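Appendix B, example 12.
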Amino acid sequence: MQRRYLAVTIGLGILSLACQDALSPRPPELRPPTKVSRTMQALAPVTANLPVTGGSTVFIVNWPYREGVQVARTYSGLTYIASDPRNAPLIRFYTGNVDYRGIHVDGVWQFCAIAASIRSRGTDAPGAGACPATDPSQISSYSDTAIVGDSVFGVRSAKVPEYPGDCAPSASCYAYSGSTTLALTPLAADLDLRGGANGKVGKALYVPTFTHQNGYANIMFTDSALPRERPFQALSWNWHKVDPSAPPDSYWGSTDVNGQCPTRSLPLYTSNLCSLNVKEAGWLVSVARVNGLSHTDSVSVECAEDSLLDNPNIRADLIAALQASDNANPQLRRERGGWIMQDTLTKAYFSVPDTVANASATDCNIAPTNMIVPGADQVGYYHTHPHQAPDSAWSCLDPVTHQPFGHKVMVNPKLGGGGSAGDWSMATQGWPQYIISLHGEDFKLPETSGNWTQAQKDANPNRWWWKKGHGLCTWAAAANL
C-alpha cells in the first residue's frame, strides 16, 4: 500500500518523510488510560425501636450468610429513669436521661441495667460492663462497625433490681420512659477478582501462545472484597471463550472450569480460589456474595504478543480504529491512526487518535502528524489497513490532485511483512509501527528494522491474529466481531 507522510518536528529530531503540505503540530486532547469502574453497592439499612422495658427483645433482620455482613451499628435516642432515694444502696440516686449503655447497678449485681445491645450469633454488643460506674452517660447517638449474621435482635438488659416493698406505698422505686432506635447500615462493597501467572497479578493476563507445544497456562484466580475487610463468599465460576468456534488442541482439549473450579450448592461452598488450566483466550467470570449482595467480576486471559499490545486498552483502541475504517463499500474505507503514549509518572499506556491525519486519510494513505501530550512520551504509532483480499483499493487518491488513481491496487496484507515502504520508513524514525488489518492480522514493524533487507521484512516475525477463526488467540476486544 502507498503511504505519504508529513514532515513533523518531534523534540530535537526531524522526521524526514515524503509530504505535499505541512501541518503544524497541535496538542491533542489527552485520552487517559481507561479506569476500572467499580460498582460499590450495599444492602438496605434496617432499623428497630427497642422499648425501655427491662429484658425486652425486638427482631431486626435476618441475613443468613455464613460470612456475615459488615455494618455500621448506630444506637440513637435517650431513655429516662426516675429513682426513689430509698433504693439508693443499689444505684446512686439518679433521675434523668440515660443513653444506650444504661445505668450501673452496684452491690452484688454489678451490671448495666436497661442497656441496649445488638445480638448476633449469641454475642451482645456493647454487652455488660459498658456503662460508666459513675452517673450514666448521655450520648444521644453512637456508631461502630461489626460483622453480624443470621437473625439479629435488639435486646434490653434487665431493669434495676428491687425488692417488694422497698419503696412502699409506690409499686416500684423506678419509673422508665422512652426507647432506643437501633440501626444497621450495611457498608458498600464490591468484588475484586484477580488472576496470577508467571509472577504477574492483574485483571488482564498475557500468556504464551496456545499451541500444542506450549500446552496450557495454569492461572490462580482469587476473589477478594473491596474494601478488603468486607466479608465475601464465592458463588460460581464460569469460563467464557473469546472464540467458541475455535477447535481445541487435539491433546490438551479445552479449559475445564467445572472440573477444576466447581460451583457448589449448600451444604457445600464454592471455593474463593480457582486454580485453572487455561487452554484458549477467554475470561474467567466470578459471581460472589460481597457483604450480602451478589457481585460479578472477570479476568481476561490472552496470548502475549508485544509489550505495548499486551494491554487491554490498546487492543480495544486498535479494534475501534479498525471498525471506524471499515465500510461495506470498499471505496469508502479510510485508514485511521494514532499515537501510543506512556504516562511518565504511572507508566501506563494509552492512545491518542491522530485526528488531523485521519481527516485527510484515504483507503491506502495516511500522513501522521506530531502529537504532544503533556506528561506523556510517544512510544509507538498505529494505523489500520481497512482492506482484505480479494478486495481492491479502488479509491486511492493521488496526493497532488486528490483524484482517484486510474487503476486499482490489489490487496495482499502479507506482502512486505504487513507494511508498505512508507510504513517501514516511519518505523525507523524512533518508534515502532503497529498495523492492524481488516484481513485479521496485526503487525509490528520494529524501530530497529532500518537495516533489514526486503526478504527480512517479508518474513517479519512480528505478526499475530486478532480475528476469530484463526486459532486460540483471538483478542478479547474482538469477541463481538
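The two ends are 25 Å apart (CA to CA). The first strand starts at residue 8 and ends at 10.
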